[in-house]
Amino acid sequence: MSGSPRILLGTDADDTGRLAAGVVLGTVRANPAAVLGLATGSSPLPLYAALAAAGTDFSRVSGFALDEYLGLPDGHPQSYAEVIRTAVTEPLGMDPHLVHVPDPHGMDHAAHAADYDAAIAAAGGADVQILGVGSNGHIGFNEPGSAFDSRTRVVPLAERTRQDNARFFESPDQVPVECLTQGIATIFGARHLLLIAHGEHKARAVLRALRGPVTEDFPASIIQRHPHVTVVLDAGAASLLGDLACG
Ligand code: F6R
Questions:
Q1: What would the pLDDT profile of 205-234 be if each residue is shown by its tens digit?
Q2: Is the CB of 134 under 6 A from ligand 1?
Q3: What is the number of the ligand 1 atom nearest to the C-alpha of 165?
Q4: pLDDT tens, residue by residue, 110-124
């Protein structure tokens, strides 16, 4: 079963944050022990800021990060464990014991990845999975060619992703070459997908995700098959979609 995604149009990046926050807050107010799938990167930062400002009680909410780099030292400011701690867990007042990020420091990544999927399932699955989209169509770090039935695992980062993410590091060669990412099937298991994009540089990826062929060559296109999707865009990210009926 699949339904048309609901598209919410914001005036700018901050407005996408306020609109997306409305979705998350609706879920958390209905279920104070909700489970959230957490994206990092720039796209959800206005959302996290809006959630922090809302003053809602997140102390019983669980979170599962989408991904984590391999090869960064523990505590590196660009490790997603640190990004989640500083942008999400602390500002929202979440219980650190309920916030999970794939751990890149163990010896057996395959066993850890299986445990991570099992932990999401044991928590009841994500009520809302927050997503950004890569310029090459990745969700999580499921790069083009990732199988739709993939689960959490180690993947190499595409060169384009390393270039896109070089802005977060002091030099491009510091961007890790591998990461642990939730798989496409893991992400698809969430009850509600909330994809956020702002900026004209995302317009083509948004167009392909929403209107292009559903193909593993463009992983974000899988959202067209999910029954409950909300897409929050600013004018730049929506600029190739033509007339939009919003709401
Ligand atoms: C981050 C993640 C990625 C990003 C994507 C967009 O946890 O899984 O898929 O959402 O690379 O990144 P930004 O938002 O920085 O453009």
A1: 999 999 999 999 999 999 999 999 999 999
A2: yes
A3: 15
A4: 999 999 999 999 999
Please name the residue whose Cα sits nearest to atom 4 of ligand 1.
132
4 confidence band (pLDDT: 50, 70, 90): confident
Query: Which pTM does this prediction carry?
Result: 0.97
Asked if residue 50 lies in contact with residue 24, where contact means CB atoms within 8 angstroms, the answer is no
4 C-alpha to center of ligand 1: Å?
23
Pick the CATH number of 6-220 from 3.40.50.1360, 3.40.50.720, 3.40.720.10, 3.40.30.10: 3.40.50.1360
Helices (H), the chain: 13-30, 45-54, 80-84, 90-92, 109-122, 159-165, 184-188, 203-211
d(Cα 95, Cα 195) in Å, to the nearest integer? 24
